[in-house]
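Service request form, structural biology core

Requester: graduate student, group of Dr. S.
Request type: structure prediction, single chain
Budget code: on file
Notes: please return the result as structure tokens.

Sequence provided:
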Amino acid sequence: MKLDGRGFIVTGGTGNLGQAVVQALLAAGARVAVPYRSEDPWRELHSVVGSTAALWGCRADVADAEDARRFFDSAVSWLEQLDGVAALAGGYAGSGTLEVTSPGEWTDMMRINLETAHATCRAALPHLLARGGSVVTVSSRLAETGGPGAAAYAVSKAGVMALTRALALENKDRGVRFNCVVPGIIDTPPNRAAMPSADVSRWTPPAEIARVVVFLLAPESSPVTGGVIPVHGRG
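Core staff response, request fulfilled:
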């Protein structure tokens, strides 16, 4: 796919999956803007993708609606046009059954996973409605199967899935598409460290998920909206 001249925002772009999506977009000729919370992950992203004038970022908390709006306004000004958003920001916590976990874990998962998706989509829509485009969110297989020991995470990711479907219906006649990818366990260094005895051959590498995300962002996927797409084929 060729995305020359197109502009994309990747939230969570400094994470393992986000880095792979940024790399794939840049390789296709796109310009990419990334929010980040601290300088170290931003520098790490630059070390992964190399020096390029096609990548821009600034500090922002995309779980905060006003901060997300300010970031999108600045990012679109730099990009000159917004063609799509990969809403990948999120995180995982699962410290035990619901009755033994702290109330803070529930609040944190809703903020980190669901509120980031909500604030990102709300900030993106005014820009995308101007010329059309695509949003790709990321849920989790646990949202479908249940997450024993990680109820807050599973529920927050189920919310992302429901939000994506609702926005797809709201915008299907307005030129903006919404789709959701659903990974299982992603083959990342933190996951390998956390589960040293696991069969990693059944995990999905970030680069393989990134190819699906980029396809859903690209014009080639124009008939697809409201999709909940499994990307856990080995699991």
